[in-house]
Design brief:
Blueprint lengths: L1 E2 L3 H6 L5 E7 L4 H4 L5 H7 L5 E6 L4 H6 L7 E6 L2 E6 L7 H20 L1
Parallel strand pairs: 1-3, 2-3
Antiparallel strand pairs: 2-4, 4-5
């Protein structure tokens, strides 16, 4: 997973990609819950998305921009625009994250076909 270093990086390096932003923080126990299974999901979806870790404490303005008021949370971007999100303060299971990613894939297919 790529760690976001600046908002500029988001607007330049990933502006034309399919991106999954993971908003998280080191102190968040529900965020740590994701760590064992996220590498497997990243590998499974590596052809579909670029995964970007966003430290909530460092990018609080970005959290506000994407209405992320709880972590861990996911925001899916296509060409810089929000396609979908999975935002809440609740712990997320592997199955829930995978279901979200599958739904994003379907939505992005729909936008490409238009």
């Amino acid at each position: 997973m790529i760690e976001l270093k600046s908002e500029q990086q988001l607007n330049t390096d990933f502006a034309n990609d399919h991106v999954i932003l993971l908003f998280s923080a080191d102190w968040c126990p529900d965020c740590r819950y994701l760590e064992p299974f996220m590498p497997e999901l990243e590998e499974k979806y590596e052809k579909d998305f670029i995964f970007v870790y966003v430290n909530r404490d460092e990018f609080i303005d970005l959290c506000a921009t994407y209405n992320v008021f709880g972590i861990p949370s996911f925001v899916a971007l296509e060409d810089g625009k929000v396609v979908d999100d999975f935002v809440s303060k609740n712990r997320k299971t592997k199955e829930e994250v995978e279901e979200f990613l599958e739904g994003v894939k379907e939505k992005m297919k729909g936008t490409r076909a238009q």
